[in-house]
Write a structure and sequence with these properties.
Structural class: mainly beta
Shape: globular
Radius of gyration: 13 Å
Number of helices: 0
Oligomer: single chain
Length: about 120
Amino acid sequence: VQLQASGGGLVQAGDSLRLSCAASGRTFNMYTIGWFRQAPGKEREFVASINGGGYSTYYADSAKGRFAISRDNHENAVYLQMNNMNNEDTAVYYCGAKAALIYEHWGQGTQVTVSS
């Protein structure tokens, strides 16, 4: 599966933004899709994930209550709705796909910058 993340941009603190991860391949619904982010000088960190059927989601503590992950298997897409954003959300956001335990496929990142 090939992934392409999009939707990043410059927003102000408190604003919302929706990221998209578009995938190619016929077996998209077999993959768990995760969103990760990497801020300057920091390691890549997990943000949220959703299983292939779309009924099981997980969030990092920093995302709980503010972010929502969803997917549309007909469109081969996963979305990350980010609300009430703050400066700490500034990072390059990546989407990844895994069929089992390890994320094996990655899209290019999309830059998200939150200004105060």
